Amino acid sequence: MDSTRRNLLTTGAAVAAAAAAPRAFAQPTGKGETVMAFYQKGNVRIYYEETGSGFPLLLIPGGGLNSTIAWNAKSAPFSPVEEFRNEYRCITADLRTACTGQSSGPIEVDRPWDAFADDQLGVMDHLGIKQFMVLGFCIGGPFIWKLLQRAQGRIVAAVLAQPSGWRKELPELGYENNLKGWGPELVKSRADVTMETVERFLNRMYRGHADFVYTVTRDFVHSCQTPVLILPDDTPPHPYVIAMESAMLAPKSEVSLYPWKDTKDKIPLAVRHVRSFLRVHRSAGTAAS
Fold first, then answer.
1. Which residues of 113-140 are buried (b: 16+ CB within 10 A; e: fewer)?
2. Which end of the chain has fewer CB atoms at under 10 Å, N or C?
3. What is the number of H-type helices and E-type strands within the chain?
4. What is the pLDDT of residues 55-88, one digit of tens each?
5. Number of other residues whose CB lies within 10 A of the CB of residue 6
């Protein structure tokens, strides 16, 4: 890639142009550069980045409904892009609901989780990716279960790190935290959204499938044949009990050590488990494709 083109890719003008450019323009170079672009469908516009080359790995940042690419580097227990860019084609994106992100789209009150899955699968379709693996933090846990429900045959393997879920002692936590924090900030930043819309949206998200992982039923997890690796946590929004119940139900599950991020020396062990898990299933996915 010559210096002129590299400079263009790092400007806002190039980012906007990439949405309309041929897909080949948005391919990672394999030399470590990060490609920034938009996927657009109707009134939905998703900002995403690609880094590295190899088997596709979708990375879902944490941060709840404010999930952005920046979270991966600033707040994650480990940086998934830095850890895996040398082996995988890493793709990550801002949520359409993130107040500080570059994505945008309507607040779909009647199908909140499916709307996010539309965006995630839409980006992969836009890039011409059929099979991929996925690693998600926090809210990425429920997102992954929804993706597996929607496109199980496309996902070779999944890693759920500190997954969000319903906590018996705090059954309204997801709803209330977002109603107080995320909702008012979103209303301030978007003239098309009201608090009434926010309340209806959150009610459907966090009360629709209350008592488990928010997005799917226990029956679905029990029937899911995709290999999953779960890195449990135990904070109010990341209940250990639900993470372990998911692991016990899923027929092809693995569980990392716990606790795995209470001290810095344990995190590399968990990353090593993730890396070996991905490598095993990358080989299976490559052979099948």
1. bebbbbbbbbbbebbebebbbbbbbbbb
2. C
3. 12, 8
4. 999 999 999 999 999 999 999 999 999 999 999 9
5. 12
Mind listing the pLDDT tens digit for each residue in 93-147?
A: 999 999 999 999 999 999 999 999 999 999 999 999 999 999 999 999 999 999 9
Contact 157, 133 (CB under 8 A): yes
Distance of alpha carbon 95 from alpha carbon 155, whole angstroms? 20
Q: Which amino acid is at 56?
A: P
Do the beta carbons of residue 60 and residue 164 sit within 8 Å?
Answer: no
Contact 165, 242 (CB under 8 A): yes
Cα-to-chain-centroid distance, residue 258: 22
Is residue 148 within 8 A of residue 155, CB to CB? The reply is: yes
Do residues 94 and 154 make contact, with C-beta atoms less than 8 angstroms apart? Answer: no
Please, are residues 148 and 176 in contact by the beta-carbon 8 Å criterion?
no
- What domains can be seen in the chain, in order of their start residue? 25-288 (3.40.50.1820)
